[in-house]
User: Which sequence fits this backbone?
């Protein structure tokens, strides 16, 4: 015996979510059907609406149902600073860290020629047009510190070189609050090579 | 900054699922919007359809979109044995352990007078009518080995006492304070084979 076909379909459909295996999918299906039908109905409606209406901001490509996102609309941000990130989640992480008051540009991925993801797939034509406007003075390349992220940053750097903007990247080093023992070798040697004068502030 | 209102609503809606906190909800929303829109659309449609169409089997009260579930329809099960469980997940766990070839009755919970859950809320009128039909010779009270599950079993035992059916419960061997759904198959099988006469000690 299994559950009825429709209940099985529901369990199967939950598997599309990240980190959801068969047991969790079953728990989710049972929870919705046994205890949370109103919440489930709302979840279905919101998923449907979000998938239909949420697209990319025409200016920075972050996820939004508006044409231009709230951050691009804001008058309080510094137009001279543009931070390039791979995903809206990275953008949020930087915002929550606080301190950066410029604008963003979201790639939704990184260059990956083998998967057919070229410059236009990650919006680099739009990014170049943005820099060509002339307001941006510095582009912070905050792609992920991975092979693909670094390669993408290098590509963008050479693409933008003719516009005379300052290019920067996030500092590499050991994470705050971590233990050296558990930091990987690549990070450690980068942190060593980039060591700074010690100051007791 | 947060995400756009609709993306925030999507994240909030995922919180209805069991074990989903803010960080997981964000990961799910991003995953659907960035990489899995077709899967998300299917998930929304299946949730919607399941919530509308899945109800209780008219005979055993398990979850099904049919009037009578496949197990109740089956001619291969023993009508003389009826196993009473708290949830469809418990029923599935027993089926997957193998060995039991009777029928089921699903309570969808246990008696809980303080929450207004009385005998009719858990279908005990239907259960009594089923036993009154006269085919059932033994009722296995497989409620959870918790205070509430035991209390419910005692209530059912006294309710059915006048019909002269044999009453049994799962052998201890299932861990006290646990939930049937998460007990491994071997333990469940043993508990089934070692089931004992129900007594109101």
Assistant:
């Amino acid at each position: 015996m299994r559950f009825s076909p429709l209940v099985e379909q529901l369990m199967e459909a939950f598997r599309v979510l990240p980190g959801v295996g068969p047991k969790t999918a079953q728990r989710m299906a049972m929870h919705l059907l046994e205890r949370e039908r109103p919440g489930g109905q709302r979840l279905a409606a919101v998923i449907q609406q979000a998938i239909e209406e949420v697209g990319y901001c025409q200016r920075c490509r972050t996820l939004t149902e508006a044409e231009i996102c709230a951050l691009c609309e804001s008058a309080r941000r510094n137009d001279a600073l543009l931070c390039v990130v791979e995903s809206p989640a990275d953008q949020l992480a930087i915002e929550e860290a606080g301190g950066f008051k410029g604008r963003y540009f979201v790639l939704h991925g990184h260059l990956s020629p083998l998967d057919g993801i070229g410059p236009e797939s990650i919006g680099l034509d739009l990014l170049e047009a943005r820099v060509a406007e002339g307001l941006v003075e510095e582009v912070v390349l905050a792609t992920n510190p991975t092979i693909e992220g670094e390669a993408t940053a290098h590509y963008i750097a050479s693409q933008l070189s003719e516009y005379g903007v300052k290019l920067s990247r996030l500092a590499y080093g050991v994470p705050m609050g971590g233990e050296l023992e558990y930091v990987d070798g690549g990070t450690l040697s980068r942190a060593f090579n980039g060591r700074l004068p010690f100051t007791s502030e």
